[in-house]
Design a protein that fits this description.
- The chain contains 24 helices and no strands.
- The chain starts with 10 loop residues before the first helix and ends with a helix.
- It folds into 2 domains: 10-35 and 317-533, MetI-like (MetI-like fold); 40-307, MetI-like (MetI-like fold), CATH 1.10.3720.
- The chain has helices at residues 11-38, 42-50, 52-85, 91-103, 106-117, 136-161, 165-174, 177-205, 209-215, 223-232, 238-267, 288-311, 323-328, 331-337, 341-369, 372-379, 386-397, 403-430, 433-442, 446-457, 459-475, 478-483, 491-500, 504-529.
- Helix 4 (91-103) packs across helix 6 (136-161), helix 6 runs antiparallel to helix 9 and helix 10 packs antiparallel against helix 11 (238-267).
- Helix content is 76%, strand content 0%.
- By secondary structure, the protein is mainly alpha-helical.
Length: 533
């Protein structure tokens, strides 16, 4: 078929569309990672890898990641299947709360679990045995399950929503219910179960805020948190600290890379329901399903809502008090955090604003390239942990970029696999031949066609992506901890500093501010979510 007589892409433009996104991702993540790889010499690598402390930390990291991922799938997958196939009462609320849980800032989740299950917690005060969920190993596991069970819930729900109804009806007509499960439902759900386990494993493997806040002991260090400790505290010589931390970063990336490759393969096999389709219930939910929905709703909601309660309660008298908020807004905050609260808010807002702008541009480049290789490379950034990313950006660009710029770039790279998804999906659905041909025929240029035709069609996807980028920036912790100075502190770092300085009410007050900002963005995003899923 001949191309329309309007604007055409020349060979240079086509090459730019293909190579441009690859170069952006390369300079954003992979060139800095090469700097990390070049930093430690063979002697430093051998020293770090043979260190008993590193072996102990690596063993604990594997253990907690496996347990956390398995329990996350065990809790979330049945809920996703119930919501897709039976639609019990309360499904909508649980679905919304699961999204909030997954996108909550790590420090908010950490202090939220302490608010519910820690010393003097909302539930642990009533049932002391529940303190096991607010501290130590099982506290870390419980917080990870809170964070990652929504992955299994939503992936399984999406997969089973894609099952054709006539296929289910035919299977039931000519076979037993067990045959339907074995021949229809399991093949659709299996890739989602595997992908959710792998993704949860990677997130738990690179956990940082939760181990240092809930674990609060060197015995609960993950490789991610130990990397920070090595870089910041264990060496007086900055060069030696950078070499040792780089060796740990290489170890972590090498351990995660196979899982990232598996996830990329699995993500391409995930079934998706047609546009506008939703799960159609196929039977009664049963007696236990509503109770399960109530349990999940409470599990997801309590850590976040308890933050507000603990922010208003004096931890010593148990009386309602605004001293936490007064402390946050007063001189006590400056004495602990070493900067003013206004500066922290300004930093957080500015970083989020810049991350939104840059993320939308990078995601658009990824989408218009229409290259499967580009998409795979962008998703593979998930194998680079936030702390490793922060270290890599500092080693690569500290001589030419200020810390605030490195923090912004780290936030963009950390959120890229999530933020780019709605825009890439949107372009895949919109760019049919029926639209592309008239677009080229009647538009003066590619930019004109994008601004006047595609951008209005993709408005909802851009709103969702912008909200996701802002939420990721608000909550990003690992890379920011590696890069921050006194002048670049964000809300997440301030929460950590207040908690570490044993100002619990102030920490909860600051966490409530961060939670409110994140919730506002998620509520805004939820307005548009069903229009593109």
């Amino acid at each position: 078929m001949d191309e329309p007589r309007g604007w055409r892409l020349g060979r240079a433009e086509r090459l730019a569309l293909t190579l441009g996104p690859l170069l952006v991702v390369f300079f954003l993540a992979y060139l800095p990672l090469l700097q990390v790889a070049a930093k430690p010499g063979p002697s430093t690598l051998a020293e770090v890898l043979s260190d008993p402390a590193v072996k102990r930390v690596a063993a604990f990291t594997f253990k907690q990641a496996l347990v956390s991922a398995a329990l996350s799938v065990a809790l979330g997958a049945p809920a996703g299947a119930l919501m897709a196939l039976r639609r019990p009462r309360g499904s909508g609320l649980v679905s919304a709360l699961s999204l909030v849980a997954f996108m909550s800032p790590p420090m908010v989740v950490a202090v939220g679990f302490r608010a519910v299950y820690g010393r003097g917690g909302v539930l642990s005060s009533l049932v002391p045995q529940l303190r096991v969920l607010g501290e130590g190993f099982w506290g870390i596991i419980a917080a990870h399950v809170f964070y990652n069970s929504p992955i299994a819930l939503n992936l399984v729900y999406t997969a089973l929503s894609a099952v054709p109804r006539d296929l289910v009806d035919s299977s039931r007509l000519f076979g037993s219910r067990l045959d339907t499960v074995r021949r229809v439902l399991i093949p659709y759900a299996a890739p989602a179960l595997a992908a959710s386990f792998v993704l949860a494993y990677m997130y738990c493997f690179t956990s940082f805020a939760i181990p240092i806040t809930i674990g609060a002991s060197p015995r609960y260090n993950t490789l991610e948190s130990y990397l920070y400790t090595v870089y910041r505290f264990l060496y007086t010589d900055p060069g030696q600290a950078a070499r040792a931390a780089s060796a740990l970063a290489l170890l972590q990336v090498s351990l995660l890379a196979p899982f990232a490759a598996i996830y990329v393969i699995l993500s391409r096999k995930l079934p998706h329901a047609p546009v506008g389709e939703a799960a159609r219930p196929g039977g009664r939910p049963g007696v236990l399903a509503p109770a399960y929905m109530v349990f999940l709703a409470a599990f997801y909601a309590l850590p976040l809502t308890s933050i507000y309660l603990r922010a208003l309660l004096d931890p010593y008298t148990g009386k309602v008090s605004l001293s936490g908020y007064r402390g946050v807004l007063g001189e006590e905050f400056r004495s602990v955090v070493q900067t003013s609260h206004a500066a922290v808010l300004a930093n957080t807002a500015y970083y989020a604003y810049m991350v939104v702008l840059i993320s939308l541009v990078v995601s658009t480049l990824l989408a218009v390239s229409e290259s499967r290789l580009t998409e795979i490379i962008a998703v593979s950034v998930i194998a680079v942990s936030p702390a490793t990313l922060g270290l890599a950006l500092y080693l690569a660009y500290s001589g030419i970029g200020a810390r605030w710029l490195l923090i912004i770039l780290a936030h963009v790279a950390a959120g890229l696999p999530i933020v780019s998804r709605p825009i890439v999906l949107g372009f895949q659905r919109v760019l049919s031949r029926e639209i592309v041909d008239p677009l080229r025929l009647y538009s003066k240029s590619m930019v004109d066609g994008f601004l006047n035709v595609l951008a209005p069609l993709l408005r909802n996807q851009y709103l969702v992506a912008a909200s996701l980028a802002a939420v990721v920036s608000l909550g990003e912790f690992g890379a920011t901890m590696m890069l921050h100075t006194r002048d670049t502190i964000t809300l997440s770092i301030a929460v950590h500093k207040l908690a570490a300085a044993r100002r619990p009410q102030m920490a909860f007050a600051e966490a409530s501010i961060l939670t409110t900002l994140s919730l506002a963005l998620l509520v805004f995003m939820a307005r548009w979510r069903q229009r593109w899923l």
